Amino acid sequence: MKNIKYIKFLFLFTIFFTCEDFLEPAPTSVVSSADFFTNEDQLLAAIANMYDGLQGANDTSSNSNHATQIEFYVTEMRSDNTRSKSGEGEAAQFDDFNVQPTNGLVADHYRSFFNVIFRANTVLANLGVASDENRPKFEAEAKFIRAYVYFNLVRLYGDLPLVDRVIGIDDTDISYTRRPTADIYDLIVSDLLAGVENLDNSNGRNRASKAAAQALLAKVYLTRGQNYLDAQNLLEDVMNSGYMLEPNYEDVFFNEDNSEVIFAIGYQSGQAADSQNFSAEWLNGVGRTVGVNYVTDDAKAVMLESESAGDIRTGVSMREDLIQPTQTQVTKYLPDGDPGGADGKTFTFDARLAGNDWIVLRYSDVLLMHVEAIMAGGQETNAASALSSFQAVRDRAGLTDAVTNITKDELLLERRIELAFENQRLYDLVRFGKAIEVLGAFALANGTNFSSNDLLLPFPQSEIGLSNGLLNQNPGY
Amino acid sequence: MKNIIYKMIAVLLIFTVSCDDLEKYQLPEANSIPDETPPVASFSAIQGEGFEFEEWTLYQFTNGSTSATMYSWNFGDGNTSTDFEPTNMFPGEGTYTVSLTATDNLGVSSTSTQEVVVVEPEAPAVPDPVIVNGEFVKLPKSSGSDCACSGWINRDLGEQGESSTASGLDVVKFDNNEPDHIYQEFEVVPNADYLVETSIRHSTTDGTMPSSLEIRVLAGSGYEAGYTPVYYTDTAVMPQGNSSTGYWGYRSIAQVENADNNLKIQVLDNPGNDDYNNVVFSFNSGANDSVVLFMRGIGGDSSGNYGYNSGNEEIRSAYVIITAVEN
């Protein structure tokens, strides 16, 4: 009888000690995320993975995350700058301020960028394997990416789920709870402050840098309409960091890695995994669409008027569609810089595998933000430092008449032309408080229906459905 | 006849009673089941910008209502609208009760009411900065005797300018062959132009090392890391740049002489007369909301604790006035 007791004890102990190892063995034949990260090289792979997420997939599957490659649909095509060529299909919903919650491009965009946030959070969760020396840099780099993505998302969707760590499928209270934009901006600002403090400008233009964090933080402050002096100081720091205007406007786009670019999402030509297709989509029947992101009559008129005053940017930014002369194409991102022959669609290489980097931040944007920071919410400025920043941008464009005063409307117009088709216009209109007025008039002239509710995208219907009633749709949808 | 009347009444009664019964068997129509998605009215108001056409009285209304098809606005100034997102020009400043009633096709409605306070925005004017004791009156210091230099001492950067009088008025004096200075921090609007006016007298030329007065406007961005300026109005509590009274934002002559920290440098040589000569110059505050006015006598040798000395003559200043330049 005693023996049995001991044996029972023995069993208990045995079970106790062996359970963990026995029932949850580390798999030896496959890698799992739980125990993957053991050294710094692997963490570097996770960092590269964030940029891979921003690049997006260059394919035609509607299940893929296309990320930056489809960003123009939800930004530039919702402004008065561009539209679809045919006016048909899902893409045309953006032209007409008639975006449906079921729009697949919106779902793709939302999904893609929350996936990038997941990738950034994965880096942040595994900083333990980094050396003490590199850890703050890696942390700042991941936070910069997270802030960049959230800044775009919060301006496009409004209140958002606040995901500041790796979450699982059961964390529905996080993934489906919309937090006020102020909370999202708190995270963005604290992430960017970490970037300003711990990043440097040594990693090239396709990775996060101190200057990129400074410029982006300045834009966040301008968007919030506060900290104008902080914004000005950040921008003046960038202006003293060795960046400069490329003398020839065209070279900004076709001489990659030039000293005007502060942060760009890198692509490699000819490689399916690292190339982009938006360059092809913007032409006539080169991509899989018949042509999207075509120039609106409104933008065309503004660009041509400036050209008649000597503006060289117009000729670089757009051209007549060589097959359909009534239509106007964007030419800032011609596939690998090739104009496509006599018909604008004949290439000696696969134009759908283009390598043009997508420029996120460049020096002329910084100069124009500098003017905006000095204006500090006012209607105009004639401060000498603002004039000199503004003049530098105009001089490069061939508009050398001396500027003595800058109004808010003139600044907005300058941004429209200088940064045309670079996915800035919608954000600019909103930030300048002109979106309702300008887009309202634009819609009226085109016989479409615009309301202030159109300034925010709908939450994808798929997300609303998955949330089991937790997610509220934006008003107007 | 009576019978007929009774019959009619009976028929009437039957009709009255049976009508209710009949409705029970009607197919569901309007209002027969509850409105599962009643409208919720919601809106916000955005003030216009500008003064030329009183744009500040023009409000753009945005409509965030849900589940509604018809909208009725009452702006509280007698104006109404049925547009989705109307604009309204209010008659002037005042508080207006604006209401939006959103109604759906089932006739269910929701009303949202807000007070819209219309106030003319202040034209962005740059105020004149506040300079404490700009007339160099003998006032109490945080330590030591009263001085025309009170409010102007930073012992990290030099010895204090001293009290003196001219025509019965207090003036501040930069002694010959001494590292005398005056220093004051004040608040400014960023990127604004300011005018500095002062009145300076050099004593009669005397010796081989003539004195010059150096005037610098120093940027607040050059303050010691972590320093936050405090704008005192009572000279008796001001720091003087030492451990017993507290320190200012600039702690060394090296910081003062760093070109990045200087918004303006004016050097006034001896004009060869001993009159009070008016001096006027301007500066732009740049990316600063705080700046320093710093003056010292130079021209002497570089001996002593501060590495500079005034030359052979005394210099006096009667006042400093700083005003914003109207654009």
Keywords:
heterodimer, A: 477 residues, mainly alpha, Serine Threonine Protein Phosphatase 5, Tetratricopeptide repeat, two-stranded antiparallel sheet, two-stranded antiparallel ribbon, globular, B: 327 residues, mainly beta, Immunoglobulin-like, Jelly Rolls, 2 domains, 5-stranded mixed sheet, 5-stranded antiparallel sheet, 2 helices, 9% helix
What does this structure look like?
- The complex is a heterodimer of chains A (477) and B (327).
- Chain A has 477 residues and is mainly alpha-helical.
- Chain A has helices at residues 2-23, 33-36, 40-55, 71-74, 89-95, 104-125, 135-157, 172-175, 181-198, 210-224, 228-239, 251-254, 278-281, 297-308, 313-317, 363-375, 384-396, 408-418, 425-431, 435-446, 461-466, and strands spanning 82-83, 261-265, 294-295, 318-320, 328-330, 358-362, 380-381, 406-407.
- Chain A has a domain at 38-199 and 449-477: Serine Threonine Protein Phosphatase 5, Tetratricopeptide repeat (Alpha Horseshoe), CATH 1.25.40.
- Chain A has 21 helices and eight strands.
- Chain A is globular and about 105 Å long.
- Chain B folds into two domains: 43-118, Sandwich (Immunoglobulin-like), CATH 2.60.40.10; 159-324, Galactose-binding domain-like (Jelly Rolls, Sandwich).
- In chain B, the strands form four sheets. Chain B has a five-stranded mixed beta sheet, with no helix packed on it.
- In chain B, a hairpin with a 5-residue loop joins strand 6 (94-103) and strand 7.
- The mean pLDDT of chain B is 90.
- The interface between A and B is medium-sized, with 24 and 23 residues.
